[in-house]
Specification:
This protein is mainly alpha-helical. It is 68% helix and 0% strand. It has seven helices and no strands. The longest helix is centred in the C-terminal third of the chain and has 15 residues.
Length: 95
């Protein structure tokens, strides 16, 4: 499959915000599979600094009266607040 075919399939698969984003990109980006993928990743993929996440989670205190489920819920809330654009799969990958 050539780049033109891959580009056509990618463009055909874009929906909602991704399709809207396409119209705001310059022609060179719209007409290059590699550039379009890079632009979409930059727009919609979450860039995570692993060290930052580790520092955030280390800041959680496990109180003696707190269950591990409550601690996990607190971690989920912390990650959700830090990455509000992430879905549940992203939150679980970060934990």
């Amino acid at each position: 499959m050539g780049e033109a075919d891959r580009l056509d399939r990618l463009i055909d698969s874009l929906r909602d915000k991704a399709f809207e984003c396409l119209s705001h990109l310059n022609g060179a980006t719209q007409n290059s599979f590699e550039r379009l993928v890079k632009a979409m990743k930059g727009q919609f993929c979450i860039q995570v600094d692993k060290g930052m996440v580790e520092r955030m989670l280390q800041g959680l205190d496990h109180k003696p009266c707190e269950s591990f489920e409550e601690l996990a819920d607190a971690a989920r809330v912390l990650i959700r607040e830090a990455f509000p654009q992430g879905n549940d799969d992203v939150v679980w990958m970060l934990l």
